[in-house]
Design brief:
Largest sheet: none
Radius of gyration: 15 Å
Number of strands: 0
Strand content: under 5%
Order of helices and strands: HHH
Length: about 60
């Protein structure tokens, strides 16, 4: 459970860092996402989900 909370905290930290450093870039990216078809977003989501799972699986197996 502690690892999950640490991972969520790291996620918030990285998101906040990007928002603090690049606010105008984030707004542009959100506009781009808004105009992207849902199927393409879903495909990207699945790809990132698999990559994330493989990274976690690899780290845990060491």
């Amino acid at each position: 459970m502690g690892e999950l909370i640490t991972a969520i905290g790291l996620l918030f930290f990285i998101e906040g860092l990007f928002l603090a450093i690049f606010p105008s870039r984030i707004k542009n990216m959100l506009e781009l996402i808004k105009n992207t078809p849902e199927n393409k977003l879903r495909s990207f989501g699945v790809v990132f989900l698999i990559i994330g799972f493989l990274i976690i699986w690899y780290i845990k197996s060491l």
